[in-house]
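Known limitations

Files may contain more than one protein. Parsers should not assume a single record per file. Below, a two-record file is shown to illustrate correct handling: read the sequence, read the token line, then continue until end of file.
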Amino acid sequence: MPFDRFRFPIGRASASCAMALAAACAVYDDSLLQASQDRGGDVGSGGALLGSGGASSTNAAMGDVVTGDGAPGGGRSGSGNAGAADVDAGLGMGGAGIGGPLGAGGASVGAKGGGSGTAGTGEAGTGGAVSVADAGAEAAAITEELIDDMEDGNDYIPAVDGRRGTWSVGNDATAGGEQMPGNPFVMTLIPSGRVKSMYAAHTWGHGFAGWGAVLLVALNQLSHDPKQSYDASGCLGITFWAKVGPNAATSYKIRIADSDTLPEGKICMGMGCNDHHQSLATWTTTWTKYTYLFVDMSQEGWGTPQKPFDAAHIYDVEFQTSEAKPFDFWIDDLAFVKK
């Protein structure tokens, strides 16, 4: 089984480690990542944006999420009024497919249509994700708990609710491959901004032929401290805004490392580790809000099979390339979806 080296660009807290790459499925050992350290909107009556493969129902007044029964690859149009009525919000629970149409006169979920709403344009969800196009207003159709809005420009996440951690990047060290920026990671100024947001996490590069490149945020680890898990059992998933650059890859993986898939959890061993629960994502060149539920995530299957996803002991949120072509993607306003 061939061996390679995991490489970070040289920086304050960069690190390298030996790792094995499986021929059938190139992976990386993210347990050896070293993070740098020291340091609601109104929904117009009518339509609802559907994710792929079925729908969930969100009570606009209470925020309770209930699994719906849409057929995989199908979906249905929304009906109902803003505020108190149930609205099919499109937290898709099925496989990939085309989202259902908007109800007549409805606004995209989360867009501040107000009143009777204006016609919304929703994109097809992928892998159970909800997507809401940025129509000039922030989306707020679900209850969120902010992890980082990136506006401080540095690599630290706010120390809130027991979280402490940093952003970092890494790649498979393919000769000639390039990834920017390096570590310590810094946020990038958004050209012309995005509504009220001025900074976002941005990484770009090319030439990685193994498992690719990754942007990740540790939730409970600073500097060279041992990795510790974070309790997200009160959460349903994650949500964030994303877009890709022109002529860049559009397919990515959203991966959540937990105690069953990282060596630190002392459950998996060797090459059986790092097969994290994940969702496949397809992003566009337009800023769009996406939501990925833990229940829709699954392992790829090459690692040690684990128990159901352990949201009470998660370590990292990872955004990884999934195709061997130039990549260029932005992540902004990362948050947990609350129960």
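...continuing to the second record:
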Amino acid sequence: MFGPLGGPELLFILAVALLVFGPKRLPKVGRTLGKAMGEFRRASTDLRRTLNAEIALEEEDEPPAPRPAPKAAPAKTEPTQSSQTTAQRPAEVE
């Protein structure tokens, strides 16, 4: 629960705190410390949520990676009129 701190370490810390603050002020110090830790957790959770939301917005704003264009089928060509010869009518004599 407390990481590398075990039972003897916690008892030693409590004994030192009792000697430093005294029996009357120790509960008040504990409450203040607990409130400060709770506020820190709330602030860090809020910061984490804000950062995750900003990252998600940045990812949405990025344009998608360009996809390669599909290969176009070769266009069918039709024969042109220039290949055909046009016959001229003979000039009419009057």
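Parsers that stop after the first record will miss the second one. For reference, the second record is described as follows. The helical segments are 7-61.
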